[in-house]
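Usage

Read records sequentially. Each one opens with the input sequence:
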Amino acid sequence: MYIHLGNEISVKKKNIVGIFDIENTTISKNTGHLLENATKEGRVVNVSYEMPKSFVVCLDKDFTETVYISQMSCATLLKRSKRMPE
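and closes with the structure output:
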């Protein structure tokens, strides 16, 4: 199944590694490095131009990591993921 992240962007639920609150996690040095490296390598997808509230890390079949930055809160995305069957 797919989880809608906003603005017509959806990802497969099984590809999601984690859903993170952008405000609380970006203060960590490790998370900052993750986002910085993903941006440099062109692996960040801004789902919306509104104020970001969360980011979702996904792995594709070839283990390519993509970071989706979303205007939706973690709570909303987690609720959506729980409603979807595997």
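Summary fields computed downstream for this record:
- The radius of gyration is 12 Å.
- The longest strand covers residues 16-21.
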